[in-house]
Amino acid sequence: MSLDPKIAARLKRNGDGLVPAIVQQYDSGEVLMLAWMDDEALHRTLTTGRATYWSRSRGAYWVKGDTSGHVQHVKAVSLDCDGDTVLLKVDQVGAACHTGDHTCFDADSLEVTITP
Prior knowledge:
With 116 residues, the chain is of the alpha+beta class. It has helices at 5-10, 39-48; strands spanning 19-25, 31-37, 52-55, 60-63, 72-79, 86-92. The protein contains two helices and six strands.
């Protein structure tokens, strides 16, 4: 089985055949992480209900939570208007970040300084 051709035709992939996937907690709207998907990862996500990504560093698919136990149960998936980004709304179990932080955006807040 492969990704529905109608969905595949809408995707605008980068040079490596990937699209960014923004992951959001479905009930609070909190942004949890960003990962990468190819057609197969998106197909697996849509057909299993488990968030599946392409690991650029490992060169392999990974299902979020298979090794850590920090599972992402997929509630909804959307494409943005240009077809170049996927939004996953998930129910996150445990930490979303590989560092153990709740989100990948917890650790390094940047100061916004507006100069008139």
